[in-house]
Write a structure and sequence with these properties.
The chain is α/β, with parallel strands linked by helices. About 45% of the residues lie in helices and about 15% in strands. The strands form 3 sheets. The chain has a 6-stranded parallel sheet, with helices on both faces. It has a 3-stranded antiparallel sheet with strand order 1-3-2, with helices on one face. Strands 4-5 form a two-stranded antiparallel ribbon.
């Protein structure tokens, strides 16, 4: 059992219908009882109970400091707890990057995300590899936005390979920017959350934020810039080398991708898959591997990612179920 400083604080923490308690019960298979300002946690597993009580205390302190944990953040912390480790959500609370366009603090939600953000701060080139929903692109955009606001850089350059995900869109009308926009849309989504749309559009018009297809990077040198290469798994080894050698003085590059979702045609090898063998160990270059435990989207996304990981593992070792045999035969 643990006691909160007040019943009002506990009510703010738990939310409508005690939704946080419901998430904890579903994730850990426990029955938790809330009475007044007290939370009763089953003591069948003393270690788990103690860790959960400590976590609830951290959540209460967060709420008292004006930051109520989101459901996604609760799920991420419970994943850490379920794996036998003690989550430290308060250290994440102190890792705010910037404010979004609604005045909310943008910060990492998991230890993996914090390691990623810290790596961007201390390294000139960062590779972030992981599944969908782990915050690879969004957190890079947030750090870039903070650097721009602090006048640490002069511009942000958003780069993406123009590779279609299993579909052929054919001819696209308009100028270069209009042709590239469908491919850059995920980066737009991130910046529309971080900046008021009118400011983002003004930055685009003035070139403070630049959109660049990967093919147009050859021959350039980018100084005092924060460069984000999204969907880096869709670069060839030659394109990867070309991009990395564009880095000029005072610049930083973050390359994000998911090596399980390569859309390169034919037998072309992904430059992201081999880059660790080439560059790992060089000072100033960091590699961050995010996992399904770092997924902060809808809970179903994490389940989908884990299901695919399980399927790929079975496929790799030839241990297929009935449905799997049919799919790979």
């Amino acid at each position: 059992m643990t006691s909160m400083p007040s019943e009002d604080l506990l009510s703010k923490l738990l939310g409508t219908g005690d939704e946080i308690i419901s998430v904890i019960e579903d994730r850990l298979g426990l029955r938790i009882v809330v009475r007044g300002s007290k939370i009763h946690v089953p003591n069948d597993d003393p270690v788990l109970a103690g860790s959960l009580i400590d976590l609830l205390g951290q959540f209460a302190e967060m709420t008292a400091r004006g930051v109520r944990p989101s459901i996604a953040e609760v799920r991420c912390a419970l994943d850490v707890l379920a794996s036998g480790h003690k989550p430290d959500v308060l250290s994440l609370l102190d890792s705010a990057i910037c404010l979004n366009n609604r005045g909310q603090r943008v910060r990492p939600f998991t230890a993996g995300q914090k390691e990623y953000v810290d790596a961007i701060g201390r390294s000139d080139v960062v590779f972030a590899v992981g599944p969908a929903g782990t915050g690879k692109t969004y957190l890079a955009a947030a750090v870039a936005t903070a650097a721009l606001k602090a006048s640490m850089i002069n511009r942000i350059v958003l780069v993406r390979p123009v590779v279609e995900a299993g579909e052929h869109l054919g001819y696209l009308p308009g100028d270069l920017l209009e042709k590239v926009q469908p491919y850059i849309r995920p980066l737009y989504d991130a910046f529309y959350d971080l900046l008021p749309p009118e400011r983002f559009n003004r930055y685009i018009e003035k070139g403070v934020i630049e959109i660049a297809p990967l093919a147009y990077m050859r021959g350039r040198t980018l100084n005092n810039s924060f460069i984000i290469l999204d969907e880096a798994q869709n670069t060839t080894r030659e394109q990867m080398k070309m991009f990395l050698t564009r880095l000029g003085l005072g610049s930083k590059a973050v390359l994000t991708g998911d090596v399980t979702q390569v859309d390169l045609p034919g037998s072309k090898e992904s430059g992201l898959k081999t880059i660790g063998d080439i560059l790992r160990g060089i000072p100033g270059i960091a590699f961050c591997d995010l996992t399904s435990h770092d997924v902060v989207r809808h809970d179903i996304v994490q389940k989908i990612v884990k299901a695919y990981e399980s399927y790929e593992s079975r496929k790799e070792y030839g241990q297929h179920g009935e449905g799997s045999r049919e799919l790979v035969s």
